[in-house]
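Regression test attached.
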Amino acid sequence: MKYIYSLRQAMAELVIEKQAYILGEDVSDPYGGAFKVTKGLSAKYPGHVISTPMCEQGITAFSIGMALAGEYVIEEIMFGDFITLAADQLINHAAKFYDLYGQKLHIAVRTPSGGYRGYGATHSQSLEKMFLGIPGLEVVAANIFYDPGRLLKSVLKSGKPALFIENKLDYSKEIITEDFDIYQYEEIHNCVRISIKGETPWWSIVVYGGISGLAVDVSKTLLFDEEIVAEVIVVSRLNDVTSTVSAVRTNKVLVIEEGTKQFGWGSQVAQALAEEGKKAWHTGTRDYCIPSSKRAEEAVLIQKEDIIEYILKKEDL
Amino acid sequence: MTRLYEQCYMIRAFEKRVEEEFEKGVMRGTTHGCIGQEIIPVLTMNYVEKDKDVVTGTHRCHGQILAYTGDPFRLVSEMMGKKSGFNYGMGGSQHIKYENYITNGVTGGMAAVGAGIAFSMKKKEGIVISFLGDGGFQEGYVQETLNMAQTFQVPILYIMENNKYAMSTCTENVSSGTVQSRVTAIGMQYNCTSSENIEELDEKINKAFCFVRTERKPFFLEVQTFRLCGHSKSDEREYMTEDEKQKNAENDPLLKLKRTLSLEKIRQIEGEIDLLIDDVFRRADKEQEMKFEDYQEVKKNADSITKL
């Protein structure tokens, strides 16, 4: 099944099972959202798909209020770049209602992150790291190796407010349902471990979200061209560093992310791995605004070749 | 009027005592007093149907929560970080949720959230009563959700306690147009009154409640008022002229209530409440402080008392 259909189907099921509401800019038909994720839902479930004015702060406040009153709410923010506008309501309201008042909030704020499409500096970023380390707020990233709809449903049912990161390039991709090891942690799934059958890895690549497929590609190239065996750990719950670390079986680890390398999720995970006595490194996108030009964007965003080069440099260490 | 004076005086005595405790260095953190504004939450709460309605508050919430619960012991406990507080001492002065009352420390934030709660109320019986101030009114998400509340026709009553100052900044100096012009521009029903005329205030609050309950649409009531204390514990109100302070003190709604009562009655009410406040502060002081180890238990308990 395609990633986008899985999400759409999960939302339909949440409307049926939990009378959930879907809010966001342009989410109703005929438009069905900027990336068409909610297409067809407003016709099927009238009154449950609400197109809002263009005001992410207000929509987020409104959605949190609905969740506070007991509703299941899926909010869509058109581009991941615009989650900065939702920050106060997520950090100072939703997270505090959950952690300070013990109030369950069945809300997920869905948003697509990521570049590689020439959308430029304000429509390509991976800003989710700015929301990490906030007690009471879950940050979850979908990927093509674990059913994103299933992930969305478990996130929403958990009652902990969540930022749910999708990826623009993943919408049209098929979900890869091979027989991988799946780690379960608390009520929300965390990691998928992808390893090459019959081989014992000595490298681990830890990754989340849109570039997870890229990481698996890297592991194949490493095996065929360099005879290096690497497992890939694809993480969903970004703030759950403990279970991320526990999923890593090797002693050499590279953590990669599409967000800028500095002050990232990767540095936190790599540091936690180092505390476990592992050799851990992290890399990500270079610290520049993301250019629109194809060649310049490629140079700034992390690429397959960068990751391979990084691992080869560290192979003999 | 006797009951009204009792309710208002209790809040006044509580806030005065809080100021004293801060001066003595007994209380920690910060606090936002509502001295001068007590009459607004007191009259408002008279019309709240506690089992159905939801009330969202502001950072200046002591008057609101005391009028809602009539329980100064749990409020002072909360402010002292004691487990006997509304939120087990987790929240302190400005983070309180109790039954269907909820507030938070970010100005305007709860008015924005209130609109969403009211959306859910469309299919229920109750309404949302959402307090906000003239400072919080300037926040982007307040303006955004006023529009959403009106567009989606949700049953919410906004009560603006307009004390004319956003901390030390006179709101008039930093905003264009009027509250009325902004609210009515989006087609929302609006009315204005002042805390100085108690009978008119009561009548307009009553009418506003009736409108939201019967029409199931938003209503915005602006109440002109004033603070007779600083914005927070460290504020001496240097930004107000002596004339203004004097004029406000003369127009204190509590003085007006007092004039309707006999001296004997006043003495009796104040005597009893002074004793009550003294008693709750003493008792709270002896309560067990919340410890870090209680964090998980607090969360679990909080969840089970959740009604909202």
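Expected vs. actual: identical. Chain A has a mean pLDDT of 94.
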